[in-house]
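Dear Dr. L.,

I hope this message finds you well. Following up on our conversation about the binding site, I have prepared a predicted three-dimensional model of the protein together with IPE. For your records, I am including the exact sequence and ligand specification that went into the calculation, followed by the structure tokens. Please feel free to forward this to your student if that is useful.
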Amino acid sequence: MTASAESSSELARLPQHVAVVMDGNGRWAEQRRRPRPFGHRAGVKAVRGIIRACVAKGIGALTLFAFSSENWSRPRSEVRSLMDLFLRSLRREASQLSDNGVRLRFIGDRSRFSAELTKLMHDVELQTQHNARLHLNIAINYGGRWDIAEAARKLALAVQRGELAAEEIDVECFGQALSLSDLPEPDLLIRTGGEHRISNFLLWQMAYTELHFSTALWPDFDEAAFASALADFALRERRFGKTSKQLAPDGKTEGG
Ligand code: IPE
Ligand code: IPE
Ligand code: MG
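The resulting structure of the complex is given below.
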């Protein structure tokens, strides 16, 4: 294989859309005998690192789980400090992200955020809307079940208004009503922190996503750890219901 053929086959195995459950900030802080918000602040550095790596590698979309709809159940002081961290980080990083061609969007229910945070989110989305190098989606007060229920509600309202026939609702149409429907579905999910679960992240969108679980706590998830997740992804055989034989270059079978 020539060098260029090799690099183009590597490129073909690069995910187009990476989703990340950034878990382990609290434990990272506790290991250092520091309060949990110290770990969340350290997590912001790891966020910068993975954004930089995606831009450098040409990965087109990155969706980060920053706050789940269930995370409101945490101690009030931790929730307050997280909201404050979102606001400050967004203020500080928005211009540089925009200059680097990043399009920022937020997915999740915004109704519980402060007016200040809601406005900033809106402004940043507007400011970066024409950027296309990296689609960076931040899931904040997001839940996969919320996303599905919202889509159902939108479609029901469209039927009620007479804009859509109930019979037209199928998998394609339903998928279009969900968050991130304009992007390819995540092909790689990384969860740090050692837990093997989805925690109500992108439920519908991850039907065929490859799952990579890392024991690294999120603040420790560096470029090498990301490279190893990508290497793991490159080795996966994505069959989408077919057989291995059908996927082989000369693997034509009847109907395949
Ligand atoms: C993930 O880290 C960040 C958020 C959920 C906001 P955690 O805060 O869940 O960290 P652990 O899992 O307690 O270590
Ligand atoms: C998932 O982490 C949500 C985020 C990373 C934002 P959690 O720490 O909330 O998940 P569970 O509670 O361990 O499932
Ligand atoms: Mg956690």
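In brief: The chain is about 45% helix and 15% strand.

With kind regards,
A. P.
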